[in-house]
Amino acid sequence: MTVICWFRRVLRLDDHPALAAAAKNGAVIALAILDPADAAAHPASAQRQAMALPPLDAGLRARGSRLIVRRGDPATVLAQVVRDSGAVAVHTSQGLPFAGDDGLQAAVAGAGAVLHVHPLADLVPRGSVLTGSGTRFKVFTPFWRALRRTPIAEPLPAPRLTAPPAWPASDGPDWPEARRAMDRGWDVVARHVRAGEDAALDQLEAFLNRITARYAEGRNRPADDDATSGLSDALAVGEISARRIWHRAMAAQQDGQGGIEDFLRELAWRDFARDLFHASPNIDRTCWRPEWNDFPWRGDGPDAEAWRRGRTGIAMVDAGMRELFATGRMHNRVRMIAASFLVKHLMIDWRVGLDWFARCLTDWDAANNAMNWQWVAGCGPDASPFFRVFNPDTQGTKFDARRRYRDLWLDPDAVGAQEFADAAPRSWRVDPHDRLAPMVDLDTGRQRALDAYGRFKRRD
Ligand code: FAD
Fold it and tell me: What's domain 123-152+189-279's architecture?
């Protein structure tokens, strides 16, 4: 009996519930689908997925299998591969947002097979960590305490695979639509990616060997490259599971390694975001606190464009936005600073920022991106209050005291600034020695945000 395992943003063999179920039920066709809609909306994340495919294929080949890659709309591709192969079932993982598989179910059924959607190997199944009264947590800290008391399931080993009688045709891993969807020097982004599940496991081990107490403090310093795990893009494309990370980290803690508890707490934010997204699938478009949909946000326009291009004249913001564009990454502290500047000092709608991050980030994750933007904008459940306005200069003094991060991206002779120049489209080219005046005085911008917030609170 032939079955298909559709590798849907879970691009690994280890701890893969859908693959384990497929392998139990027949000879497996491993299938990845490059969806043009995904490439158009999230080109950097799509490119990152494409980079994960050759190592995944190599891992499958080492087990006598191989990866079939097809480009197209998932429902059409699945129906086609089912018909071509005579497969009786398709096994896959939940997608984000969590709802929305009806069209796929119908397409697979129409081709004569059954679609089985398996849970993701997150720390806990969605909706399983609840308050004493059985409701979802709205605040992270009690969620974390409850999760910490919950046994985390052991990761599943990579299964033995049986080859099908014939292999369907494969389009190969190149994804030109993803490259074309954004005018950007992709070779620069590629320099910052270590793709594949073996690379992710190696990165985890290296991180656990050095973590100690340095993580708690160092994780806020953007120039301190090694202080955090750097695993977010591997997690986002599913090259490593959160459960694998958890159990390896717990083993390191038992061996006496320090700093693990702080790290696991950060990792749990990812599950918290997924629980929120599961309960409120619209949080990437509407404010979790509905009254905030009426806040007088400013729309997209030249100010937002200056922010996107890293030309606000505010050093921490511009450094972060240039890092994001050049590398597809941005340090978490700088994400908070750049996002806060957009929604507070410029009062621009958080969705303008969310969409740009979704286009640029190699670690784009629908749930993490939405929850964090709502956190910064003050409209999420466990959010930073709107009246708490980060001063990007003070943040720079505190977390980039020696200016190493700002210099890396803003000094025209530094490697980062040169990478940004290489990655930027022709239309963005400017004299790198230009000294930009701040587009808004920080005190004036802060006061404008607070006044708008005051009027908004009093409006009824
Ligand atoms: P580590 O400190 O090593 O943390 C380990 C893992 O924990 C991370 O890989 C990540 O999966 C999880 N984690 C850590 N912090 C957070 C957090 N605040 N929220 C959710 N999970 C977290 N992260 C994404 O993965 N995708 C996104 O699209 C995304 N968008 C963001 C947008 C904004 C405005 C902000 C402020 C943050 C966003 N984050 C997003 C969270 C965070 O910035 C990244 O996960 C982090 O930079 C990852 O670096 P690391 O792997 O070295 O982190």
Answer: Alpha Horseshoe (1.25)
